[in-house]
Design brief:
Elements (H helix, E strand, L loop, with lengths): L9 E6 L5 H9 L3 E6 L4 E3 L4 E3 L2 H8 L4 E2 L7 H9 L4 E5 L7 H4 L6 E5 L7 E2 L2 H7 L4 E8 L9 E8 L6 H25 L14 E2 L15 H10 L7 E4 L2 E10 L2 H10 L9 E5 L2 E4 L6 E7 L6 E2 H6 L10
Parallel strand pairs: 1-2, 1-6, 2-5, 6-7, 8-11
Antiparallel strand pairs: 3-4, 7-9, 9-10, 12-13, 13-16, 14-15, 15-16, 16-17
């Protein structure tokens, strides 16, 4: 909770998925007033395909905050509705709808976006996953003044964190979501104090975080071990990296590089077996599988139609040594 002496702001919050929940809750708990929440329309979810409210809508309703769910903000009715709220500022976090310039200009202090990267690196839809996949050693959160471009607005505040070798997309998502809360409150205080100096993005440093696709998730065993590990971590929890076992997808939830001792042991046991995708061993820790340059250890996997399980347990009823994953 902010301890700022600044007067409370009238805030519209726009967001949809889990990543948006923590910042919304932080604003609700602050001295500011969340006067309305915008979220995507309810979508079918679960086996019954029942219409389900977004995580953000659920939180808003719990706190008796008015929720608006227009299909678009490009029509006059939706724009008039938003304008009538007379907000000081609008906070946008993974909302999922394009905000036209007329909407961006409505709140007195404009619209802010919490973006899960160190802009201008990783503009776009999947900055957390792409940072891991690319092997970045750090990422963070940027609070940005929104304009009509795709994550192109002036940067107001940045906070960074290291990407560790154990980080998958879920772990990093959770950390950045909380960091975004701290950054947002600092930014609101700074804007009210007029202590923040907007910074233009350097267009020469721009990279784009393309949306994740299921087709990307298949592991290419002819790639280096480190690249495969990064894909497995980046694609956890969605869409989850997979390989083919007996013609069916075998999802790989967790894997790691071998230690130096493990590498030496496998080189001694399998001096000739270096085909990519070949299972060359099994330990209590998991399946040892060749890649283009060195073996990796698959620790957690999920056979088609079953729950995730330890790779060692999966291998107990199968003679996998010598099997080549496709």
């Amino acid at each position: 909770m902010s301890t700022s002496a600044n007067p409370p702001l009238r805030i519209i919050f726009a967001g949809t998925p889990d990543f948006s929940v923590a910042p919304l809750q932080t604003l609700i708990d602050s001295q500011h007033e969340v006067i309305a929440v915008y979220s995507q329309p309810d979508r079918p979810a679960g086996r019954g395909r029942k219409l389900t409210a977004s995580p953000v809508k659920q939180v808003a309703l719990e706190h008796n905050i008015a929720v608006y769910q227009p299909e678009s903000l490009r029509n006059q009715e939706a724009q008039d509705e938003l304008k009538a709220l007379n907000a000081d500022i609008m906070i946008v976090v993974a909302y999922g709808l394009i905000l036209p310039q007329v909407v961006l200009d409505m709140p007195k202090m404009g619209c802010l976006n919490i973006h899960a990267s160190l802009l201008p690196r990783w503009r776009g839809a999947a900055p957390i996953q792409r940072a891991i996949e690319a092997g970045d050693d750090k990422t963070g959160v940027t609070i940005m003044q929104m304009n009509a471009g795709l994550d192109t607005g002036d940067m107001l505040y940045k906070i960074e964190t290291d990407i560790t070798q154990n980080d998958n997309a879920q772990a990093l998502h959770d950390r950045l979501s909380q960091m975004g809360c701290d950054a947002l409150m600092a930014t609101l205080d700074g804007l009210q104090n007029q202590s923040i100096i907007p910074e233009k993005q350097d267009e020469s440093l721009v990279t784009y975080a393309e949306k994740m696709h299921k087709e990307e998730a298949q592991i290419q065993w002819t790639q280096p071990a480190q690249k495969i590990i990064r894909k497995i971590q980046a694609f956890n929890p969605w869409p989850v990296a997979f390989t083919l076992y007996e013609g069916k997808p075998l999802r790989i939830w967790q894997a790691r590089l071998l230690t130096a001792d493990e590498q030496a042991q496998q080189a001694q046991l399998n001096p000739e077996n270096n085909l990519p995708g070949l299972v060359i061993g099994l330990t209590k820790q998991g399946l040892i599988v060749n890649t283009a340059d060195q073996p990796i250890c698959i620790e957690l996997l999920q056979p088609a139609g079953k729950k995730a399980m330890n790779a060692y347990d999966f291998a107990q009823s199968r003679n996998l040594k010598g099997y080549q994953f496709a």
